[in-house]
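To: structure subgroup
Subject: Chain for Friday's discussion

All,

I'm putting the inputs and outputs inline so they're searchable in the archive.
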Amino acid sequence: MTTPRDGQHPGHPWDEPGFTYESNVSVADLAATLGAASSVLITTHEKPDGDALGTSLALHRGLRQIGVRSWIVLAGPLDSSLLAITEDDDDVRRFEQCGTPDEGDEPELVAVVDTGAWTQLDSMKDWLRPRVDRVIGIDHHARGGSVAGRRVVDTDCASATQALVPVLDAMGVDLAQGGVSTPLFLGLATDTGWFRFSSAGPAVYRLAARLMESGVDKDDLYARIEQNATPARFAMIARALTSLSFMGNGAVAVMRLSMEDFAETGASLEGLAGIVNTPLEIGSVRASILLTEAAKGLTKASFRSKPASGGLGIIDVNELAARFGGGGHVHAAGARLQLDLPEAAEAIEAELPGFLS
């Protein structure tokens, strides 16, 4: 078994000893707190995905609808196609440009959505820690820490946007007004693989129908988000598939992308979303891993897995990623390994036997 390196530790890295990550206030209480605030800074995990942006944007527009000033701060790489749903009157800022608020723009309340893990808030954690008592959280992950003093955590939800809807309802927000429904649908759709994943149960489809009745044009949204790729992305897909190899007697597919691949294609990290899912189309594959060389000695790993079927159980990629300081969901997770590409592949392969029963 590989020994964890550079701050990696046994157990799930999102956990805090002796801390139980669960709701500690009601939806009504959280809605009242948000509605009474004079200003709210909204943020989410670094490298925001569709659910992170969708939850942030839906809350931002909902607060605007009831007269509460808010703004969004995003950190890390972000797929530019996701920003296609933002509008001119949305106040979306990048941490890399604005940093944390100065004294003259200190928010009364901070909303952290789609995460409760300090490890996913690296850019803002030093600013957030002394403000925990005025941080509220809205999340659907099963693991997390003490980021938010008041929080609603609903692990039955397929997305953070689904967890946000009852809060918006309690605030009296009309989902059909002010463009609130579109980012809600974005989070719901992208976190369920556009309703392909096992998390897309009856409640998800009922909410999707409600959002479409509230004005979401799903075909237009899909085209803007999922059919807006660049030639560079397809060049990277080709290289990723060329690198395809297998572990665990064919149960796990692994693809690798090097810094040279990025330099030669002109692609960016932001444009890689979804590539890791491609090998899951192979019938014998139960999990897929994309290893990306972010810098010499640093590899980013994206993990995906299928639901149980045909008498085969699942590969819990959340727990697999946790072995390397990462995390996420049972079927989708990520980690950063302080290793070169070949070393990262070897380290992951060494951990696989315990996940393949």
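Points worth raising on Friday:
The longest strand covers residues 287-295.
Residues 1-10 have pLDDT under 50 and may be disordered.

D.
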